[in-house]
């Protein structure tokens, strides 16, 4: 008897396989250090809020990395990282907005603080998006996807 596959299920499995292979090349230790440098450079000691925000930053960084690796396919077909980034600009803005909102909710501050958190979040997310894009493009070129 033949097995009938659902196309959506097959795509989802293929995407999970690709994401798992991309996560093998990701260094959480490096991402944690980058998050500490970007967001917590002036703080001493760990609080509950800091631990929570660090986990949140790692989650968002992983999402940005996987998003970059997903759009690496366009780089493989000749687009520059900037052109590919414009394709997912909306998603990157949403990630930056979520991160800035979390920091604003935990740390009180004025309008200046919100802009500062937004700027830091955007820089962090774009950095990890670009790393994912570069790594994904490398995998596409080596046909390891």
Structural class estimated from helices and strands: mainly alpha
As residue ranges, the low-confidence spans are: none
User: Which sequence of SSEs, written as H and E, runs from N to C?
Assistant: HHHHHHH
Radius of gyration: 18 Å
Mass-distribution shape? elongated
Helix content: over 70%
Q: How many beta-strand runs? A: 0
In round numbers, the mean pLDDT is: 88
Largest sheet: none
Tell me the span between the first and last alpha carbons.
Answer: 30 Å
**How many DSSP helices?**
7
Beta percentage is under 5%
Account of the protein in words:
With 145 residues, the protein is mostly helical. Helices cover 79% and strands 0% of the residues. It has helices at residues 7-24, 28-39, 48-70, 72-76, 81-87, 89-106, 111-141. The longest helix has 31 residues, at 111-141. The mean pLDDT is 88.
Task: Provide the fold topology.
Elements lengths: L6 H18 L3 H12 L8 H23 L1 H5 L4 H7 L1 H18 L4 H31 L4
């Amino acid at each position: 008897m033949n097995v009938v596959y659902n196309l959506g299920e097959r795509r989802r499995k293929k995407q999970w396989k690709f994401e798992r292979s991309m996560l093998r090349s990701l260094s959480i230790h490096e991402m944690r250090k980058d998050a500490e440098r970007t967001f917590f450079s002036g703080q001493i000691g760990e609080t509950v809020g800091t631990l929570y925000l660090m986990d949140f930053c790692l989650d968002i960084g992983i999402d940005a990395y996987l998003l970059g690796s997903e759009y690496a396919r366009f780089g493989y077909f000749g687009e520059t990282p900037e052109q590919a980034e414009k394709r997912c600009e909306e998603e990157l803005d949403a990630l930056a907005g979520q991160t800035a909102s979390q920091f604003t909710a935990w740390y009180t501050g004025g309008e200046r603080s919100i802009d500062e958190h937004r700027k830091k979040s955007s820089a962090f997310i774009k950095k990890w998006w670009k790393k994912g894009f570069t790594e994904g493009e490398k995998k596409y070129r080596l046909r390891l996807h």
